[in-house]
Design brief:
Layout: H1 2-7, H2 12-21, H3 23-37, H4 41-51, H5 62-79, H6 81-85, H7 89-112, H8 117-135, H9 144-166, H10 172-210, H11 216-241, H12 244-247, H13 249-275, H14 283-310, H15 314-345, H16 349-376, H17 382-410
Helix pairs in contact: 2-3, 3-4, 5-7, 5-11, 7-8, 7-9, 7-11, 8-9, 9-17, 10-11, 10-14, 10-17, 13-14, 13-15, 14-15, 14-17, 15-16, 16-17
Amino acid sequence: MKDEIITSLDDPGQLEKLYRTNKVPFKRAFTALYPELEGNVLADFWNARLSYESDELSWGTRQELVVVIAISLVAGLIAKLPAFLSIDQEFFFSRNVGFIVFPMLSAYFAWKNNVSVRSIAILVGSTLIGLLFINFMPNDKKSDTLILSCIHVVLVLWSVLGFAFVGETRNTDEKRLSYLKYNGDLIVITGLILIAGGIMTGITIGLFKLIGFEIEKFYFENVVVLGLPAAPIVGTYLIQTNPQLVGKVSPVIAKLFSPLVLVMLVIYLVAIVYSGKDPYNDRDFLLIFNALLIGVMAIIFFSVAETSKTTQSLPEVWILFLLSAVTVLVNGIALSAILFRISEWGITPNRAAVLGGNVLILINLLLVTAQLFKVVSRKARLTEVGETITFYLPIYALWAIVVTFLFPFLFGFR
């Protein structure tokens, strides 16, 4: 995006087209570039334009609004398929929950980025392969590979969405980092939408109950089922058309939670020593430990995505470095625990999946920690940390594909 902005400075029309095509990445890229462009008349104009924040909520173009309403309805109708076709709900939702929203968001970004026919074919083909594979797997509820495939196919769909988000830009690192930031923003805005929806649900049901109508069953089976899939889609639309909505909230959350998570993690590691619990002999504790690891790693990645676009305050970078270093320790404990369990009780699909995931996370965290150390030593810029993160994202996608599609065959669908 930065290269495209620079080459378009002599063509105001092309610059406007770039902005209208993808407002959020354009604004981030231009803001990062402006110190180098200051003094250029057109650049000064765009800086004033992008710095102005309207108090009014923008609803975008009519065409975009129609597209968002259409894909929200499609997502809601997919969620209603068990009721329409008398499909077992447990079977349907355990396998297809990711296919309710992710393909709709992929379609939105493919349309917004005006991707080529080849890219559309890749998006549609990848989604269909996942849909057919996961639904034609043997219905053995005790199968570990089935559960692993159902979990990891969501990560595959998340990767497909990332492909649609990035589009066909040449600067993939910047767009991938923007994708991580988009995920953080989406969590914030979707959470607010769901809270507001929950309050509205309680008020609506309560008001109807006062006049003698019991609408709970109808409301949850229709309004809620249609509304839940629409929340992240509407949230995405609001982020794209009104970047200022959460543009200032997400960085604050990242800066607030990073030190809190660091303190919590250190206290938790000390508490483990006195608790008598350990991940070596307690399977459930190991699962929780790994969930903690993934959550903290996500916070690090989102914080880097936010901080690299706003400020490079040294105390904030030190917090991220210490958090990464402590998370490497947590990962080392988890990795040693899974290796111990494999040596004692042998390999299983779950242990193989956790082992592979932990090895990948450890390598990624070591690379990120090393880059953060260079930043605090003033030998590198924080943007280089973001590049390290984004470079590694396709490796996670590849591992999700392996677990989803190959593990069932490697372990005989057990």
